[in-house]
Amino acid sequence: MELSSTLSWLVDAACETEGADRFLAELGTRLMEDGVPLAGGALALAVPHPLIARRTWLWRAENGEVMEALGFVPGGLGGIGPASPTGDAGRRWLMNLAAGAVHEDVVGAQPGGPALSWIGPRPFTPDDTARMRQAARFAAAPLAALTARATLKTALEAYLGRRSATRVLAGPLRRNIGETIQAALLFADLRGFTALSEGNPPSAVIAALDAWFDRIGGSVHAFGGEVLKFIGDGVLAIFPVGAASRRGACEAALRAASAARVGMAHLDEVRQRQGLPPLPFGVALHLGEILWGNVGAADRLDFTAIGSAVNLVSRLEGLCRPLGQTVLVSGALAAETEMELISLGTHDLRGIASPCAVFTVPEN
């Protein structure tokens, strides 16, 4: 039996489609070329994600536009935002698109698997329906491959961050693979975490850590940085210079530190109303070169940042408590910004050969 051009594409080439949006647009266009009257379509996929329960792509036939609707995990956004029922966003959009017929197929035999939906400007004929059902059957393999790639990418991004995940996917899984980059570094650490751990049940400690990481990680991401590591109760984040200027990266790090301080002040108010102690912390900022890449054992790798700049920023954070400051800034980073800073003099840092000029930010 000779396959139609749509089915041949699904068998031979669809697995190489870059993403679900392009897959949906290409499949819809090909079905129209086969004579199926379409006004639009939707593709829903369940991809594991810490915040997103289901992703739905919506395609409009008249202009080829594809948009995305997200269904969030309950409580995934800091306790707010309900989950969207499977496929509901796509169905509502399709029903509003035209007054014609809607056809839906669940691709594959697994419950909760990919769902394809199509809408036409007129009721579908039995031949139209047969073409769409056959396309859904042949779509199982390419959608499985697309879902597997998306799942791998999402998992790596959740554990490594977006930039680092992209590097891991693009490079070989070997030690000594990396690159030297310049970045503004942010190192933050809770104070009194040992006492908090020993005096509270594990569930309370984890809740406090999650709340802390939400504030510091959210502030880093809001200003274009990336969290590289959660180290116990500490956080290492980078703001790569890359295409941005050194000044841009440094000021983004400063704004992230200020945002984290505001977020933690609000969190402490909430904890106080709950009868819980505050969560004091320190943040250090530095500008320098880091080796960003793979380290580890022969068969167990870690993607991280190492170098003297990382050592310096961690040692600088250790001065926050003795200097009575929440945010400390190295002279190297201070030299690249015009934002107001207050000099605290020059200080020796444990394990660092040269003394470091130290600054802090105004309280307001």
Mean pLDDT: 86
Q: In DSSP terms, counting alpha (H) and pi (I) runs of 4 or more, how many helices?
A: 12
Distance between the termini: 75 Å
Helix content: 40-55%
**Rough outline:** elongated
Radius of gyration from CA coordinates: 26 Å
Unreliable segments (pLDDT under 50, ≥5 consecutive)?
76-87
Instruction: Give the DSSP E fraction (strand runs of 2 or more residues).
Output: 25-35%
Task: Describe the model.
Helix 5 packs across helix 6 (162-170) and helix 8 packs antiparallel against helix 9 (246-273). Strands 6, 7, 8, 9, 10, 11, 12 and 13 form an eight-stranded mixed beta sheet that branches. The protein has two domains: 5-157, Beta-Lactamase (2-Layer Sandwich), CATH 3.30.450; 161-360, Nucleotide cyclase, GGDEF domain (Alpha-Beta Plaits). The protein has helices spanning 5-12, 20-33, 88-97, 126-138, 140-160, 162-170, 193-198, 202-222, 246-273, 308-317, 320-323, 331-334; strands at residues 40-45, 52-60, 66-72, 102-106, 115-119, 178-190, 226-231, 234-240, 281-297, 300-306, 327-330, 342-347, 356-360. The N and C termini lie far apart (75 Å). It has 364 residues and is an alpha+beta fold. The longest helix has 28 residues, at 246-273.
Keywords:
364 residues; elongated; 41% helix; 12 helices; Alpha-Beta Plaits; 8-stranded mixed beta sheet
Architecture blueprint of SSEs:
Elements: H1 5-12, H2 20-33, E1 40-45, E2 52-60, E3 66-72, H3 88-97, E4 102-106, E5 115-119, H4 126-138, H5 140-160, H6 162-170, E6 178-190, H7 193-198, H8 202-222, E7 226-231, E8 234-240, H9 246-273, E9 281-297, E10 300-306, H10 308-317, H11 320-323, E11 327-330, H12 331-334, E12 342-347, E13 356-360
Parallel strand pairs: 9-11
Antiparallel strand pairs: 1-2, 1-5, 2-3, 4-5, 6-8, 6-9, 7-8, 9-10, 11-13, 12-13
